[in-house]
Amino acid sequence: MKLLIHGRNLDVTPAIHDYTEEKLTRAIGNFNGLVKEADVHLSVARNPRVPQQTAEVTVFANGTVIRAQERSENLYASIDLVADKLTRQLRRFKDRLQEQHQGPVHRSARDEEAGAATLPPPGASLTDGKEAELPSPGVRRKYFAMPPMSLDDALHQLELIDHDFYLFRDAESGELQVVYHRNHGGFGVIQARES
After folding, report:
1. Which of 28, 37, 107, 171 can bridge 111 by disulfide, Cβ–Cβ 3.0-4.6 Å?
2. Quick check: 132 and 118 in contact, CB under 8 A?
3. Lateral strand order in the sheet of 35-44
């Protein structure tokens, strides 16, 4: 597994690097090579009055992005918490994969082939053939494959990435939609209104 560890407002010492690597290897190691790459961002709040130290981990498992983030007053505690959270998320992801393989198949072989044709070949980059350019200050761009999926699949992805919203392409309409956590519980869907 490829592990990248970055620090924001702190130097990643060998002790921090080794501790992070040990915890994440243990958390991810139980999933039999499901995870190929992990990106870790460790940060400390700039304001000394806010003792907030954050550990954020993004893993790439079989084409799926799973993200976990935890904050506490101690960086090592944040690393422990994020490793535990990541283990739970990977367990849910693995269980879901097993349900899909063992449960009834709802898609036809033709639909499977059409979906596979839209994905880049294994090992290929999503940025092949694109020009590299610097974004404007303050704007962070993310690029990811967006295969069509059902609302249930989008809700599952929302749980895995640990964000407030998830942008997806609806399998029925082909339109882009956003599913999000509502403040008072439940979920909402944002979709374009037809003119």
Report:
1. 107
2. no
3. 2-8, 35-44, 53-61, 64-72
